[in-house]
Design brief:
Elements lengths: L1 E8 L5 E3 L2 H7 L2 E6 L5 E5 H12 L6 H12 L2 E4 L5 E3 L2 H6 L5 E8 L1 E6 H24 L3
Antiparallel strand pairs: 1-7, 2-6, 3-4, 3-5, 4-8, 7-8
């Protein structure tokens, strides 16, 4: 399980250090792709396979399903950790998530999210305001 929040920087070549706790659970190779809310989603191979099967089962006759699957898979790339614990994030993913220098890696149960520090700060402020009402809604759902 991934949890926690880590602040790191991307170097001029687009390389990012992955926190050691995340590296252990991600393994040597894992998948990064365009996520929601303009962040990147990072999945260990096992989680990616589960997600891939679920997405493959979506009805390709539905326009929104096709659009989501295209978007999700077109941005996917396999990442490999180098000897310094870094990954190279492709330019298209850095551009999508507005990753320039300061980034935040966030553990979200089965995945890691990579956020621009500014976008994460904005999102966190908004989410904090809605946190109590979201908790009430989830309790009503039996969670």
């Amino acid at each position: 399980m991934f949890m926690g929040e880590y602040l790191h920087t991307i170097d001029g070549k687009g390389r990012l250090i992955v926190p050691s706790k995340f590296r252990e659970a991600l393994g040597e190779r894992f998948i990064a792709t365009k996520g929601l809310d303009h962040c990147l989603f990072v999945y260990p191979q096992e989680e990616w396979k589960i997600l891939e099967e679920k997405l493959r089962a979506l009805p390709f006759t539905q326009q929104d399903a096709r659009a989501f699957v295209r978007f999700f898979f077109s941005g996917a790339t396999e990442c490999e950790i180098d000897k310094q614990g870094r990954i190279l994030l492709p330019a298209n993913l850095r551009e999508y998530a507005q990753l320039d220098k300061d980034v935040v890696l966030v553990g979200v149960s089965s995945r890691v999210e990579i956020w621009s520090q500014g976008l994460w700060a904005d999102y966190s402020r908004q989410a904090e305001d809605a946190y109590a009402s979201a908790a009430e809604s989830l309790v009503n759902l039996g969670i």
